[in-house]
From TrEMBL:
Keyword Signal recorded: yes
Record protein name field: T-cell surface glycoprotein CD3 epsilon chain
GO biological process: cell surface receptor signaling pathway; positive thymic T cell selection
Membrane among keywords: yes
UniProt GO cellular component terms: alpha-beta T cell receptor complex; external side of plasma membrane
Organism of this sequence: Aptenodytes forsteri (Emperor penguin)
Keywords: Cell membrane, Immunity, Immunoglobulin domain, Membrane, Receptor, Signal, Transmembrane, Transmembrane helix
């Protein structure tokens, strides 16, 4: 048989496994005034305590190391599961939204009018010919025949 320990705020309630009504409680070797099956420790300071309960020839002992706090909230397993599930769903939703918005932005950036192509895709048009520096073509030598080289 085992002790039943209930913690609420700073109150610890212990239930002895003995079925008798007259039970002696000992906390760290000191006898308590309570003689019932249930023993209540008010304003427990979270320090470890050796607890024992006895009646006639039977004695049960326990080492109590319970952490208590005045303004703690108790959550059941269903509430914790719900909180974790909601957090995961919200995170997944944000990831999907970021993915789709970033995917659309990539497509618009390359098609916009203000952007220039980069790298190998860039082609330059041929330079505009300058009439002052046209190359001499075959059959057009007479245009330049009047120009003679000067001797220095």
């Amino acid at each position: 048989k085992e002790f039943l320990v209930e913690i609420s705020g700073t109150t610890v309630t212990l239930t002895c496994p003995l079925t008798e009504s007259n039970v002696a409680w000992y906390l760290d070797g000191t006898k308590s005034d309570d003689n019932e099956r249930k023993h209540v420790i008010e304003n427990h300071n979270s320090s470890p305590v050796n607890v024992s309960c006895s009646s006639a020839d039977k004695k049960y002992e326990m080492y109590l190391n319970a952490r208590v706090c005045a303004n703690c909230e108790e959550l059941d397993a269903l509430a914790v599961t719900g909180i974790i599930t909601a957090d995961l769903l919200i995170t997944l939703g944000v990831l999907i939204l970021v993915y789709y918005f970033s995917k659309d932005r990539k497509g618009r950036a390359s098609a916009s009018a203000g952007s220039r192509p980069r790298g190998q895709k860039m082609q330059r048009p041929p330079p505009v010919p300058n009439p002052d520096y046209e190359p001499i073509r075959k059959g057009q030598r007479e245009v330049y025949a009047g120009l003679e080289s000067r001797g220095f």
